[in-house]
Write a structure and sequence with these properties.
The protein contains 3 helices and 6 strands. By secondary structure, it is α/β, with parallel strands linked by helices. It has a single domain, classed as D-tyrosyl-trna(Tyr) Deacylase, Chain: A (3-Layer(bba) Sandwich). Strands 1, 2, 3, 4, 5 and 6 form a 6-stranded mixed β-sheet that branches. Helix 1 packs across helix 3. The protein is globular, with a radius of gyration of 14 Å.
C-alpha cells in the first residue's frame, strides 16, 4: 500500500459538480494506492501510521490535535513509467480488491478516533487543496 500525504489548510473532492468530501481546517489529504499483495492488516497499519504521523505544526499528529483527514483512492500511485512514455498500471490492484482496502483504511482511522472525509472510489474526481508548508510525503508499506 502506498500513500501520498499532504499537510493542508483545506481540501475538497468534487464529483459531477457536487462536493463529496471536504476538510476546511488544517489536516491531511491522503491519496491511497493499493497493490495486489495488500491485505486488511496492511490497511490497519497504514491507518495507524497516518493517524500518528507527526507532520502537523509543532511536530503534532492528527491523533494529538484531532485534525481531519481527506482520503482519496488513487490507483495511479502504482503507475510504472520506467519504460516508454505511457505508464502501465499492472502493479495497481483492480477495483474489487482495492476498494474494500481503501475503505478499511478509512474505517480503521475512524475506529482510532479520526474525522475522515473521502472521495468516491472509481469516479472522475476534482481534488482541490491548499498545501501547507508545503509538506508532502510518500508512505510505503
Amino acid at each position: 500500500m502506498r500513500a501520498v500525504v499532504q499537510r493542508v489548510s483545506s481540501a475538497s473532492v468534487v464529483v459531477d459538480g457536487r462536493t463529496v468530501g471536504e476538510i476546511d481546517e488544517p489536516g491531511l489529504l491522503v491519496l491511497v494506492g493499493v497493490t495486489h499483495t495488500d491485505t486488511p492488516e496492511v490497511a490497519a497499519k497504514m491507518a495507524a501510521k497516518l493517524w500518528g504521523l507527526r507532520i502537523l505544526h509543532g511536530e503534532k499528529s492528527c491523533s494529538d490535535v484531532g485534525a481531519p483527514l481527506l482520503v482519496v483512492s488513487q490507483f495511479t500511485l502504482y503507475g510504472d513509467t520506467r519504460k516508454g512514455r505511457r505508464p502501465t498500471w499492472q502493479a495497481a490492484a483492480p477495483g474489487p480488491v482495492a476498494e474494500p482496502l481503501v475503505e478499511a483504511v478509512c474505517a480503521e482511522l475512524r475506529a482510532l478516533g479520526a474525522h475522515v472525509e473521502t472521495g468516491s472510489f472509481g469516479a472522475d474526481m476534482k481534488v482541490s487543496l491548499v498545501n501547507d508548508g508545503p509538506v508532502t510525503l510518500v508512505v510505503d508499506l
